[in-house]
Amino acid sequence: MSNLRFGAGIWHFATYVDRYATDGYGDSRSILDAIELAGKVDDLSVVDLNYPFFGGDFTNEQVKTALEAQNLSVIGITPEIYTKVFRKGAFTNPDPGVRRLAHDLITEAADVVRYFGADYVKLWPGQDGWDYPFQVNHRRLWELSLEGLGQLAEENPDLKFVVEYKPREPRNHMSFDSVSRTLLGIEKIGLPNIGILLDFGHALYGGESPADSAQLAIDYGRLFGMDVNDNLRSWDDDMIAGTVHPIELMEFFHVLRSNNWEGVWQLDQFPFREDSVDAANMAIDFLKRIDAALNRLDVEELTAAQEAQDAVKANRLVQQALYGG
Amino acid sequence: MSNLRFGAGIWHFATYVDRYATDGYGDSRSILDAIELAGKVDDLSVVDLNYPFFGGDFTNEQVKTALEAQNLSVIGITPEIYTKVFRKGAFTNPDPGVRRLAHDLITEAADVVRYFGADYVKLWPGQDGWDYPFQVNHRRLWELSLEGLGQLAEENPDLKFVVEYKPREPRNHMSFDSVSRTLLGIEKIGLPNIGILLDFGHALYGGESPADSAQLAIDYGRLFGMDVNDNLRSWDDDMIAGTVHPIELMEFFHVLRSNNWEGVWQLDQFPFREDSVDAANMAIDFLKRIDAALNRLDVEELTAAQEAQDAVKANRLVQQALYGG
Amino acid sequence: MSNLRFGAGIWHFATYVDRYATDGYGDSRSILDAIELAGKVDDLSVVDLNYPFFGGDFTNEQVKTALEAQNLSVIGITPEIYTKVFRKGAFTNPDPGVRRLAHDLITEAADVVRYFGADYVKLWPGQDGWDYPFQVNHRRLWELSLEGLGQLAEENPDLKFVVEYKPREPRNHMSFDSVSRTLLGIEKIGLPNIGILLDFGHALYGGESPADSAQLAIDYGRLFGMDVNDNLRSWDDDMIAGTVHPIELMEFFHVLRSNNWEGVWQLDQFPFREDSVDAANMAIDFLKRIDAALNRLDVEELTAAQEAQDAVKANRLVQQALYGG
Amino acid sequence: MSNLRFGAGIWHFATYVDRYATDGYGDSRSILDAIELAGKVDDLSVVDLNYPFFGGDFTNEQVKTALEAQNLSVIGITPEIYTKVFRKGAFTNPDPGVRRLAHDLITEAADVVRYFGADYVKLWPGQDGWDYPFQVNHRRLWELSLEGLGQLAEENPDLKFVVEYKPREPRNHMSFDSVSRTLLGIEKIGLPNIGILLDFGHALYGGESPADSAQLAIDYGRLFGMDVNDNLRSWDDDMIAGTVHPIELMEFFHVLRSNNWEGVWQLDQFPFREDSVDAANMAIDFLKRIDAALNRLDVEELTAAQEAQDAVKANRLVQQALYGG
């Protein structure tokens, strides 16, 4: 139970653009501004930082100072391998020069991980994939994905690399599209320092049961991190956790707890039109509700119900724990 | 048959950003650059222009000169009622001051329509809607949509207004989400100068049959314009027309032809990673294939097959016309 | 508040087949068996009956006696216009003889409504639509839908007819596919005795906000009935209400209450592998939770939050009411 | 090129029921009736047979005689592990007695494979999975899936077993839900005689690129069979192959050909409302079009385009090959 630690991607506190509101959903912020906002959240311990640091030329030291001022530490570094130069892929870019750029950027990010004593380099190869039928040689594309990832893990055996899969966006189809595909790739590479960062919303949107995805990754010894949010199951909406799918969120955390998985409960939300501190507080308050509900859950009875695959009995127990008597 | 005229949204020739590649999918271009590129397409007659003109402070005259140099005329003006200031809605913004801004911008756009002798003001209220359950009062939101639209149509009886519906994006749910909802709204307003701009991809993605949507809008006398593209049915991918769903595209044009609907065959594509002139040429070449296939289609036999709802016979006729003997 | 009356489609207590388990998900039951089971539910007042009565040759009197023994009355009669003979449509069948059969069956059902003093004839034209591109003439199909429906409403002015829309299944696309399309058709017919039976799950699965759909139907004076269940948003799973989407279910009932809509809270669930009495009890217990949560909801504050479209504030209020302090 | 052999699941020539048309979409047929119909298809060489044989008590000898009369041979046997008794799962049924029944039925089916000299036992565990959140222990469910499958492969080393994955239906989520999950399981078992039967429509509906799925299965040496059909990407509609997604179908066969994959081009269609012989002939005629188009495809140029991930160039080549000059 419940010495919960909460975290967030620092982008939670940035502002956003999209293809329509090209002038942004708010005034742009530097990573230092974002860190200051993160510090205003009631119960945040760690952050995941984009690299390069956005909004200015900041040194590691400057960022560290800003973090210390807010009592925040770093859980991971996310190299931005999905910007303009990587628009046709990072690991799988048709241009070997760009693939090299990706490798170099991630290698730099590895040093930033070391600097901050963070847990991992987080890789989200959102531009690696395809848009059209017939666009790519699928074997080649997958080989490039695994070669790029494997080489980095091999070159940095002191560090962990986590892959965050997602079905699509910005590419119409991402190479690392699902928990199973990602595990298949990781097992093929066969190195101990590559794992999965499981995003609850990506699993949900991909038609997975996030609880099942977590269990599978755990059973392969590959669940290195996770984050949560919510969506309408047809897109990566990155809404506030718990606002749409509280039951599946609770099942997700139930599986983590049952497996004694210990790690940070992170947020990966994009509050386009909301106050980002409010949005984080609301999510964390809800995660605490979930934690309290799990404390109330009659696990023995639930286990029996699941043994019988008795959906009615299982969900009655869940409702009792979540909503009260 | 087939004095086809082709058109495109001028944004087809711009470059794009999204929430990940915030530095863009290419170097940014002004509307004048885009017009020059549009002029390189083999067979383009008209364009739809965003307003305000992007990439600089250009006068109507400058834009007109640029268009004339490329032999292009203007079919519609699309006021940008979906940028930062409108991020919580244009017609339905909770702030009456912002609603007024939307009204004023559209009124300006109406004058631009007059200046260019264009066919219509195109309204795509992409930020009008909601993201979360319980976020809005649904009656009030719909009332605001219809009031805002109706007022403009009333104030500008010399012009046509077309509404382009879409299920979602950027809002998680758009108020004008479907052909039927939009017709319901238009009929409620009851003015003759409001119609629909039917985007093939929006209909497809919304689970409609675009052919059925076109027929319905025609039967209400409200199909004022259309554009095409393609997608994977789960998002507004704005891919090159014909690359994924050629059969439904052909059925769409079959319905237009059967109803003697005369209008421009427009493109609304976002070639994020493709050369925009190539992408336009490829689409137009495919539309000509469709047109030729429709010339070959045995309409009498098809009508008989449809009368019997004989899917096999109907699609055999279609395949013969499209793929040859 | 809360003189709630609960109802269910009598098929909730039948057993099912599908295209794989052609020998059924349980031993088959007659309508009398189903009524007996319905009587075992703790808090059920009314049922909707399929017509013809399934599982034997039963008279109205026999059914009435069975209902009285369980203290149940009849809210609606659902003529089975989706069986083998109607596999290519009821109102829109290409064979006029089959269209006539549909008309006659519904006319019989109208008499059964009169016999039981029920509220309405429920029409769910699940086979009216299309499967393939190019299969139908879309104008003709829609005309046939409205003619068939309109004729019946005209011939039976003493009765109400409710249409239950659904995006698809068993046809790949149903003609009455959405709330807006159905309202458009009803308004075109223009008779006062046709309304909508809004199925929460159909709206959800169709990408609608069920709360918005209810509001729209109410604003046209056409919300004659409703039922609830749950699903995974990609199919009409007819799961137990509240097990997946409690928040949207609560918003749905909030809208009904705000509009002083008074009617029965009905269940349309298909407990394929569950005990049907358990499944009904569980759903009704959850609906009572929702009702209690609505009693606790600070409507004034919520109204203010919605006026500002403040999703965070609105959902905090909802969470407080639903989950407690 | 093109000594194509075509096959079909014998259920293609049966009739169907679903949860609404419980009296069926046509008069029921025995497997002997279905074989006779299969014989009427112009170009069919092999069939996949459900086991037990449907519609009567038929011996292997009777079925063999019927097949010989139509010049058909057997490619696979599909034990019906998804009927009433297995409604809560075959391999994963909570009742060990039912798991034993599944094992025994499949073992019988293995003998039928031997009798007919067929290629494989086909396993489609459509009832193995879950419907509700919290219903199952996900680890246990997956273990049971692999144990059941592995034991059979071990006990029958002379035979091949193929698993046909599908995202869902009839269970709301199937355990073998995707190409990657299935490969992960097969590799975990580690036996040489388990492979994948790749259903084009299941891959498409699951958000996969069927071409990519085929490549992946081939690269693991596990593509033991395939079948085709079409759908609207949101359900396993089992429509006639080529009617909706010709381009992706062509890409799928392009990948098979590029890998020198040799096997039967099978149909898995459910012509609910169509003549089944017509539907098979139409699909096979289209597959021949695809084959001819692949003959015309400039593979060298396509390879270059794919190397550059040039979607426009690649798809121009495809369109030329498919639609002509």
Question: What do you see in this structure?
Answer:
The structure is a homotetramer of 325-residue chains. Chain A is an alpha/beta fold and 325 residues long. Helix content of chain A is 44%, strand content 14%. Chain A has helices at 31-40, 60-69, 96-116, 138-155, 179-189, 200-205, 210-219, 246-258, 276-296, 299-307, 311-323; strands at 6-9, 46-51, 73-79, 120-123, 129-130, 160-163, 173-174, 194-199, 223-228, 265-267. In chain A, the strands form two sheets. In chain A, strands 1-2-3-4-6-8-9-10 form an eight-stranded parallel barrel, surrounded by six helices. Chain A has a two-stranded antiparallel sheet with strand order 5-7. In chain A, strand 2, helix 2 (60-69) and strand 3 (73-79) form a beta-alpha-beta unit. In chain A, helix 4 (138-155) packs across helix 5, helix 8 crosses helix 9 and helix 9 packs across helix 11. The radius of gyration of chain A is 20 Å and the shape is globular.
Summarize the structure.
Four copies of one chain form a homotetramer. With 325 residues, chain A is α/β, with parallel strands linked by helices.
Write the layout of secondary structure elements.
4 copies of one chain form a homotetramer.
Chain A: E1 6-9, H1 31-40, E2 46-51, H2 60-69, E3 73-79, H3 96-116, E4 120-123, E5 129-130, H4 138-155, E6 160-163, E7 173-174, H5 179-189, E8 194-199, H6 200-205, H7 210-219, E9 223-228, H8 246-258, E10 265-267, H9 276-296, H10 299-307, H11 311-323
Parallel strand pairs in A: 1-2, 1-10, 2-3, 3-4, 4-6, 6-8, 8-9, 9-10
Antiparallel strand pairs in A: 5-7
